[in-house]
Write a structure and sequence with these properties.
3 helices, disordered N terminus, two-stranded antiparallel ribbon, alpha+beta, about 10% helix, about 15% strand, seven-stranded mixed β-sheet
Length: about 290
């Protein structure tokens, strides 16, 4: 009887250990299909905030940062409009002609061929400016700062080679003249050694056509008069155009020092059925200083 009781006590003791987790696995069995793990779930093996070799301290990337200097030096010879109002009307390609531009606009201070030709309205002129009649401006104001009215045929030859691209394709005839400061004594003959300002020379399709005998190099047009107070070319002057060469009895000998472009204020002229203002029909050629 005693032996039988001992056997029952031993059996009950074994069942109680398994039921209460003593001497048995205390984890829930993995669900079917799960991958067995060799780590003990629920045990964090890393300390929060601890540095690691890969990432470095918390809040840092762990890699060296390189400061990049994005500043660039300005390029002095970069292409520019050349015209004070920011837009060219001839020699349109800034890449092909970086140092010469044809600029339309008006001016009221006389002359293109004079040693004291300087801006008088802070370059506030041009056919795309607010001052379409060129009030208070000289021919030099059509050029942006750092540019000047081209000195003559020699400078045009050096920077453009010819007048071919001074007038864009499709431009109507007798509509553009871009003047330069070319000296001449008489008979529409260019003379770089002279100081006189007879006639107005330039590139375009408005004015007297020049040839090799005029000695003007690539320049192909001129305004030349035999009468006082006239530029000598009908389609250039009021009321067909804005070019004026007023100056009294001897003005026909000094057009280059007298010429203005103010003869069609407020678009008061017309040509070939279209209105013409003082900023129309050309302006000057501007060359980089």
């Amino acid at each position: 009887m005693v032996g039988r009781l001992l056997v029952l006590l031993v059996a009950a003791s074994g069942a109680g250990c398994s039921e209460y987790g003593f001497g048995a696995d205390r984890h829930e069995p993995a669900p079917p299909g799960a991958t067995p793990s060799t780590e003990d779930p629920g045990i964090d093996t890393e300390t929060p905030g601890e540095d690691t070799e890969e990432t470095g301290p918390v809040g840092e990337t762990g890699s060296d940062e390189t400061e990049v200097d994005t500043d660039t030096e300005p390029v002095d010879d970069a292409p520019a409009a050349g015209c004070a109002d920011g837009a060219r009307e001839g020699f349109l390609s800034w890449d092909d002609y970086p140092d010469i531009a044809a600029c339309s606009g008006a001016w009221s201070v006389p002359g293109v061929t004079r040693p004291d030709l300087t801006p008088t309205c802070a370059h506030a002129a041009g056919d795309d400016s607010a001052n379409l009649d060129g009030d208070g401006c000289s021919a030099a104001d059509l050029c942006m700062a750092g540019w000047h009215v081209c000195a003559g045929g020699a400078e045009v030859a050096a920077l453009a080679g010819s007048c071919d691209d001074a007038v864009p394709p499709g431009t109507p005839d007798k509509s553009l003249l871009f003047a330069v400061a070319q000296h001449s004594v008489t008979n529409i003959v260019c003379d770089d050694a002279a100081s006189e300002a007879n006639d107005v020379f330039g590139c375009g399709n408005l004015g007297v056509t020049l040839s090799g005998g005029n000695g003007c190099g690539p320049l192909n047009r001129a305004l030349a008069s035999t009468n006082p107070d006239s530029c000598g070319y009908n389609e250039a002057e009021p009321g067909l155009g804005p070019w004026e060469c007023d100056g009294g009895a001897d003005s026909h000998l000094t057009e280059g020092s007298l010429v203005t472009k103010r003869g069609c204020p407020g678009g008061s002229c017309s040509y070939d059925g279209a209105p013409v203002g003082s900023s129309d029909k050309g302006g000057v050629l501007c060359c980089r200083d």
